[in-house]
Write a structure and sequence with these properties.
The complex is a heterodimer of chains A (about 725) and B (about 110). With about 725 residues, chain A is mainly alpha-helical. Chain A contains 29 helices and 4 strands. Chain A has a two-stranded antiparallel sheet with strand order 1-2. Chain B has one domain: Helix Hairpins. The longest helix of chain B is centred in the last third of the chain and has 31 residues. Classes of the chains: A mainly alpha (about 725), B mainly alpha (about 110).
């Protein structure tokens, strides 16, 4: 069997697991997680085999492994779909396989497998805990198993299938299919606890917001197909003539070339899916879903899909661009929106109370980094950050889930009613949950870009260096965002783990079970080491010790389009990067180590209105509600439902009904009764009358009969006489 | 010879009187008498034509006489039957007034 067949098999095990769990494993918790984890393990194994092979293959970018199959007949040819593995696919597969596997294993513990069922637990609500009696007869409340356990694993399996499909596909159509299936799973999983209204609303919000982006993306797809006759990467992206024609032909809109227009439309899809401004509003609300969902969908994989699309289509977006040229419209849009979002989201993140919200805004911000990097042409740097971010963000989310579980355990113990996710209720958890603390620390430092030892540093530094050399405004924005990132990361670490517990529940927290902490440890290893494959050669001291494998491997995707003048080393960006990181970390610790109050943030008063602005997310949700949602609801409820449907359409129907009745009535009273009944009655009456009159002729009296006969004879005689026959 | 017409007029008058009797009398036997009168009138008519026809020809023919004889015989037979009917009807209805026998009234 040729090697390419393996690539087809990568997305299939999770799909199969989805169907099997749905059909056979309802209510069988062990079987469902067994099927799911078995499936993603197979996909992981396949991905590792592909990775291993790819490391040994030269020129994978020029000759990617691919296989196609004929799918839809179109006229005299076939529309073909297929799979393709090139260096970009390989690195994406690597992080996708690892993070998905770790998250699946973690989910077994997160959903409390092996715990008793809670008596008050209902499907659709988070588990409330079960009462158990211990040996002394005391009643303890312990975490209970998730009632919809099998459903969770079915849905995340479907999600894993979609992500693998998106990554290995070689054409935009199957990519879009994977994209949309992930959107569906995101909706189902954010609304996993569907009995909670906030979860339902968040799910709808996520789906609709990403849908807006997807509509534009579909327009881009349609334009691309119409112009080139294909959606295949090899036909469009590896083909300089096609790119040249697209870049030089003007589209009907605003004087943009077709390449620019299509690039902007595809970028719109990414703005939705990767939660960039202005379509970022769904991601913080998406924290309503269980934490493994947040980790997988909203940190490591789904939102990365948007960035992956942009990276994949970089040749189209940058058609006609060479380093040093002014940016093409899509690149300019990406640079602006990416940088803006990075800073915008960072400011909001540092005023949030919920541990997962901070991470959500952090994700939005880091995705902005990647988009901005691509926008200025730093292809390899953006991909590098994509990979490292996946690892440390997934780690951070999973660790936060562990923290939440620990807090919930404390809540069960003490019986307090408090929000287990509010950081201001935590504190001092480093003693109670050491493994979670150390892994969270590694992830947080990686996010903040702690120099040298964390992966995030290497990728972030590369982006900042590229920005410094090509686009100063972007550099300044990203630099400030880096400072704020470090600040809110340390804020989070300090509030959660350092200091003293601020509530009794936090004091009663304990470490999570190994099935949850082992994935944390593995991801932490990646959060540290994944950066070392991309150390630039020019880096002082350590540069050159390890080859910059990442740059060589992924950089080969671009062929001759290089990335920028990295050969010359300037110390300024590096210094600013280190300063932002360490400075932000120190500031975050310094400000928040004195946070003892559960209610008020120490920064709230000094920053005043600015803090409130950030905490309320710049009131953007309220603005959207007033400008878009309320008019849409009005159109739906008043205009369409009341005016059109009930008054107009129902009015017409009722009118037709009444008209029918009137016509029927008319027929009955004006035609049926008088004419038809009348005719019948008249016939009968007339016959009776005639009979009555004629009865005179038969009186039964003989002499009358004879008289009649005589009269008849006389009449006949008269007639005959008059005509001359007598 | 007296003209044929006189006999015919006599026959017609007798016939009419007989007809009047049939149509206007109430008693069943009176009606019978009228019928007899009509038959006799017809006979006179018949015999008149016979006499004049045979006279014109000059040769005696017996057709007329036979015809008239048949009419007489039939009249007599029919009268016998009619009287029998009237007696039978009288026994049923206890009346000989024909106006009261209206069983065939429509």
């Amino acid at each position: 069997m040729p090697f390419e067949t393996l690539i087809w098999l990568l997305p299939l095990p999770p799909l199969l697991a989805f169907f099997l769990i749905m059909t056979f494993a309802h209510r069988r918790n062990g079987l469902s997680h067994g099927l799911a984890i078995g499936a993603v393990s197979l996909s992981w194994l396949g991905s590792m085999v592909v990775f291993g092979r790819a490391l040994q293959t030269e020129h994978l970018a020029e000759h990617p492994w691919h296989a196609v199959l004929n799918w839809i007949p179109t006229g005299d040819a076939w529309f073909q779909i297929g799979v393709q593995v090139d260096p970009l696919t390989v690195v994406t597969l690597f992080f996708v396989a690892w993070t998905i596997l770790m998250i699946f294993i973690y989910s077994v513990g997160y959903h409390n497998y092996g715990q008793p069922r809670g008596m008050q637990d209902r499907p659709g609500l988070p588990p409330q805990g079960a009462e158990v009696k211990d040996t002394h007869g005391h009643l303890h409340r312990v975490p209970s198993i998730e009632p919809m356990y099998a459903r969770f694993f079915a849905l995340v399996s479907l999600f894993a299938f979609a992500m693998y499909l998106l990554v290995v596909s070689d054409n935009l159509l199957t990519l879009y299919i994977g994209w949309e299936v992930m959107g569906l799973c995101s909706y189902l999983l954010i609304g996993f606890w569907y009995a909670k209204e906030s979860a339902r609303n968040a799910a709808v919000k996520a789906f609709l917001t990403t849908r807006i982006g997807d509509v534009f993306m579909l327009l881009g797809l349609a334009a691309l197909y119409t112009l080139t006759g294909s959606l295949n990467y090899r036909v469009i992206l590896n083909n300089p003539q096609v790119l040249e024609i697209l870049a030089s032909t003007a589209s009907p809109i605003a004087g943009l070339s077709w390449a620019a227009l299509i690039g902007l439309l595809l970028f719109a899809g990414t703005v939705g899916k990767s939660a960039q401004f202005p379509l970022h509003v769904w991601l913080p609300d998406a924290m309503e879903g269980p934490t493994p969902v947040s980790a997988m969908i909203h940190a490591a994989t789904m939102v990365s899909a948007g960035v992956y699309l942009m990276i994949r289509f970089f040749p189209l977006l940058s058609a006609g661009w060479m380093p040093g040229d002014p940016l093409t419209p899509p690149m300019a849009a990406m640079a602006f929106i990416g940088a803006f979002t990075a800073l915008f989201a960072a400011t909001i993140g540092l005023a949030q109370r919920d541990i997962k919200r901070v991470l959500a805004y952090s994700t939005i911000s880091q995705l902005g980094y990647m988009i901005a990097a691509l926008g200025i042409g730093a292809y390899v740097a953006a991909t590098f950050h994509l990979v490292t971010h996946a690892f440390f963000k997934a780690l951070l989310f999973l660790a936060s889930g562990s923290v939440i579980h620990g807090m919930e355990h404390g809540v069960y113990h003490t019986g307090e009613h408090l929000d287990a996710q509010d950081m201001f209720n935590m504190g001092g958890l480093r003693h109670k949950m050491p493994l979670t603390f150390w892994t969270f620390l590694v992830g947080g430092l990686s996010l903040a870009g702690f120099p040298l030892i964390t992966a995030g540093f290497w990728s972030k530094d590369e982006i900042l260096t590229a920005a410094f050399q090509s686009n100063l405004p972007v550099f300044i924005t990203l630099g400030v965002a880096a400072l704020l990132t470090a600040f809110y990361t340390m804020r989070q670490l300090t509030l959660v783990f350092l200091g003293q517990p601020r509530t009794a529940a936090a004091a009663q927290a304990h470490e999570s079970r190994p099935v949850m902490t082992l994935p944390l440890a593995i991801l932490a290893v990646f959060a540290v080491t994944a950066g070392w494959v991309g150390i630039p050669a020019y880096f002082p001291l350590v540069g050159g010790m390890l080859p910059n494998w990442f740059e060589i491997f992924v950089g080969s995707m671009l062929g001759h389009v290089g990335e920028g003048t990295h050969a010359i080393f300037t110390p300024t960006p590096l210094m600013i990067s280190v300063l932002a990181s360490l400075g932000g970390l120190f500031l975050g610790w310094w400000v928040y180590q004195s946070q003892h109050d559960r209610v008020q943030d120490v920064l709230a008063k000094p920053l005043g209105g600015l803090y409130r602005l950030w905490q309320n997310k710049y009131y953007l949700d309220e603005l959207y509600h007033a400008v878009f949602i309320r008019p849409a609801l009005w159109v739906a409820e008043v205009f369409t439902y009341h005016w059109l449907d009930r008054k107009l359409i129902d009015g017409i129907l009722h009118g037709v009904g009444r008209l029918g009745l009137m016509v029927g009535h008319g027929f009955r009273e004006l035609i049926d009764r008088p004419l038809i009944n009348g005719a019948g009655d008249a016939l009968a009456e007339g016959t009776r009358e005639v009979g009555a009159r004629l009865r005179v002729l038969q009186p039964g009296r003989l002499q009358v009969y004879l008289l009649i006969a005589l009269v008849g004879i006389l009449l006949i005689g008269l007639v005959l006489f008059s005509i001359g026959m007598v | 010879m007296i003209p044929l017409t006189w006999y015919l007029i006599l026959s017609a008058v007798l016939f009419s009187i007989g007809l009047f009797a049939v149509l206007a009398r109430r008693h069943a036997i009176a009606i019978l008498m009228g019928v007899e009168l009509m038959l006799n009138a017809v006979n006179i008519n018949l015999l008149a034509f016979w006499h004049y026809w045979s006279q014109v020809r000059g040769a005696p023919q017996v057709n007329g006489m036979v015809f008239a004889a048949m009419v007489f015989v039939l009249a007599a037979a029919e009268t016998a039957v009619a009287l029998a009917l009237i007696i039978s009807a009288y026994r049923r209805h206890h009346t000989v007034v024909v106006d009261e026998m209206t069983l065939l009234k429509g």
